[in-house]
Amino acid sequence: MSWRRGVEVIPWAVIVIAVVIDLATPTDISSAPLLAAAPVTAAPLSRTRTIIGVGLVAMIVHAFLAAIDHTFGWQLGIANQLTLAAVTVLAVGLHRMLRHREEGARRAQRVAEVAQKAVLPAPPPRIGALEIAASYIAAEDEALIGGDFYAVRDTARGTRAMIGDVRGKGMAAVQAASVMVGAFHSYADYAEDMTQLAGWLDRHLEREGERRAGLEQAEGFTTALLVEFDPGSQTVALLNRGHPAPLLLDHTGRVRPLDPSQEAPPLGMTTLGVVPAPIDRFSFPPGSTLLCITDGVTEARNPAGRFYQPEQRLALLTRRPLDPAQLLRDLAEDVERHSHGRPRDDQGILAVTHVKPSPEA
User: Alpha-carbon distance 270 to 48, whole Å?
Assistant: First the structure.
């Protein structure tokens, strides 16, 4: 890559600068300290043989400059040569240590990628007349998965989906997200409707909280949005348990939030009593896209403290014909521009498009 070739020039540039400084200064001033920096700068940027080559060139250049100045004695000659040789050896050792740490980081990254796929398996790109895309953007560079989750499953009663956000951070949130995804895939096939599905998920969370006890039992909860698509009747049914409302993009590009007709508490709060959550149905004709997001999107702030407004921004981002995968990329880039960097909270996004039938069909 061009940037890599560019940084590999840095050690050689240091040697050139050292030569210029030595020639431009009095003979009693040595550029050996700057030449010693050349192999050190090569340690994180170059291969072992390149580092050794930089060190040897630095020693030859120093000897040549000392000979020109007639200062190649014990102090400005032999001692500096020994210093340059020692620094080169240390630079090779530093390079090997950095390589070892990088290899360990890559192994950890591969393990994390496997764990991410296990916790959040990618939904199928298409189920019948539905095109599906999902993305997860972690707030931390080192993390690939947190407490946000999504899942899609094709059942005998239609295509069902879920997106949610677990309270808290860290491994406890990852474990809870994994539990929710597994429970959804287990129950989605058998629940008569989403009310029953939400009830089963509630009890599953309650049992999981009792098993873990402590704070998770007292305060554990999960916001969730349950979705059921029926392309035959061109409708989508939503059951919202304390989650941000999804956005509906129609075939003209108009965007509107699908707010619940009645607020309901998150999953896992049955100790406060059972509050019925309504199932709201909306028209979902061909050409429509349902965009489900977590609060990492809606609560992204710019430096002035203003929250991101997906309803307003999506009207400017949508392209026709709409591709759900491209929509997710455009949305993620726009949120990053708004917040001027990585998000402060994880972002889970799920987009489902009802595809228009082709003329041939």
Answer: 62
Polymer length of the chain: 361
pTM, 2 dp:
0.69
Tell which residue, 225, 232, 231, 238, has the closest CA to residue 282.
Answer: 238
Residues 6+ apart with CB under 8 A from 174: 119, 145, 146, 147
Residue of 249, 244, 254, 352 lying closest to 297 (CA atoms)? 244
347-354 and 255-257 beta bridge pairing? unpaired
From the list 243, 221, 226, 242, the residue with the least C-alpha distance to 167 is: 221
- Contact yes or no for 334/298 (Cβ under 8 A): no
Mean pLDDT across the stretch 129-151? 78
CB-based contact 266:317 (threshold 8 Å): no
- Name the residue type at position 239: L
Contact 130, 352 (CB under 8 A): yes
Beta carbons within 8 Å of 92's beta carbon, 6+ residues apart: 43, 48, 51, 52
* pLDDT over 80 (residue 106): no
- Tens-digit pLDDT profile for residues 248-260: 998 887 899 999 9
Query: In this predicted model, which residue has the larger pLDDT, 156 or 173?
Result: 156
* Distance in angstroms (rounded) separating the CA atoms of residues 247 and 350: 11
**pLDDT of 143 strictly over 60:** no
Q: How far is CA 34 from CA 12, 83, 125, 354, in A?
A: 12, 12, 57, 64
Q: Are 290 and 351 in contact (CB under 8 A)?
A: yes
pLDDT confidence bin for 56, thresholds 50/70/90: very high
DSSP string, 131-142: EEEEEEE-SSTT
User: Distance between CA atoms of 347 and 136, rounded to whole angstroms?
Assistant: 6
Cα-Cα end-to-end distance for the chain: 46
Sorted by where each begins, the domain ranges of the chain are 2-113, 121-354
Q: What is the DSSP string of 166-212?
A: ESS-HHHHHHHHHHHHHHHHHHTTT-SSHHHHHHHHHHHHHHHHHHH
pLDDT value, residue 204: 86
Class of domain 121-354: alpha beta
Residue 306 carries which DSSP code? P
pLDDT of residue 216: 47
